[in-house]
Amino acid sequence: MNIIQKLFRRSKSAYISFNNGESGSAYQTTEELLNEVADRIATQASKLTPQVIRKDDKGIMIKNDRLAKLLALRPCRELNTVDWLYKIVHRAVRTGDSFAIIMYNKDFTEIEEIPVVTCTSYTIYEDNGYLLFRYTWAYDGKQYTVPYDVVIHLKDRPTDKRFFGTNAEDDLRASVDMLNTTYDGIKNVVKNSASLRGYMKYNNWIDDEDLKAKVSEFQKAYMSATNEGGIAGIGSEWEFKELTQTPKQIPTSQLNFFKENIRDYFGISADIIKGDYDEAKWNAFYESKIEVIAMKLSMEFTYKMFTERQRGFGNRIKFVADRLQYATATARLTIATALFDRGGITLNRMLEIMDEPTLGEEGEVRMVSLNYVKVTDQSLYQTGKDD
Fold first, then answer.
1. pLDDT, tens digit (0-9, with 9 covering 90-100), for 204-226
2. Are 187 and 248 in contact, with CB atoms under 8 Å apart?
3. Is the whole-model pTM more than 0.85?
4. Which of 7, 52, 80, 238 could be disulfide-bonded to 147 (CB atoms 3.0-4.6 Å)?
5. Contacts 24+ apart (CB under 8 A), 168-176
6. Residue 109 pairs with which residues in a beta bridge?
7. Domain interval for residue 294
8. SS3 184
9. How many folded domains does the chain comprise?
10. Residues 188, 125 within the same domain
């Protein structure tokens, strides 16, 4: 029985001693701007491509095995790879932590799926030298315990806590509260604009029910769209007093200040939120946010999905992005040409960069320009002598 099997068997015990544990909660509100920021980051991160790679005598080789196909298409039954990555990253950005469980077959020889779990509460604790992860699954409300070594744990802003990241709302509470207060003020402005426009004074005695009926008749006759002339006629028993109100301006500068403060916390600009960005802006966003997420995912998956011996042979999982997807055609042509001339990419890859159809097997070739020579071989090359 291997160590993973032992840990799973230990985790089924009804009584476990808790030592050096740390708990968290996945509670999150529906703050509009926070969800908007998390959506933009998760959307771009969901475009990352997971690759199972290893090193051998010929260099880096991409392994097209069962694990690679699992990660590339559908890591779990309910989610494809894009939705799977989106869910992992979105929860990490919003709550500070997200979790996916590596599920093995019965004899622990192959990985069957890696479902993302939404937890209402969770605890990571140490028991006799082993780290265990206990969580309450939001789907069925039941509590489960698994070894932490089979938990893909993506953390965002891991600072003071030992195991967990930081919930964005904890750091942004003041700004979020002020933003909500500003929104409440805007609601009041809208409500006041549709408030009382005037009152009617009846000079004779009348009971409440008759008064309401008279006012209703007046509104239907003179304060509806059918009154094209805009003129009302009332008898001597009535007096109509118009109430004039000065509409309040929406505090846009105050609103923008708090929004910008929240976006700065996440390191994301308003242009990224609106989808109004060019090559330079997207590259800045990628390098500051998406690249870090890709590195975290690569390290976490490599450590949790391979044994120490497998990692020693160079097995690893890497999440890569198409850095040229927002580049101009001129920039892509320059980069593709430089890489192709030096044998860095195949002809098919060069066509992919330029958004052109590939050539199948015929395009799986690497070309090297003969215009380049080693510095130490210049004289031999010029005189045509063999070394």
1. 777 778 778 877 877 777 666 56
2. no
3. no
4. 7
5. 168/34, 168/93, 168/94, 168/95, 168/96, 168/265, 168/266, 169/28, 169/29, 169/31, 169/34, 171/265, 172/34, 172/262, 172/265, 175/258, 175/261, 175/262, 175/265, 176/31, 176/34, 176/262
6. none
7. 3-171+267-308
8. helix
9. 3
10. no
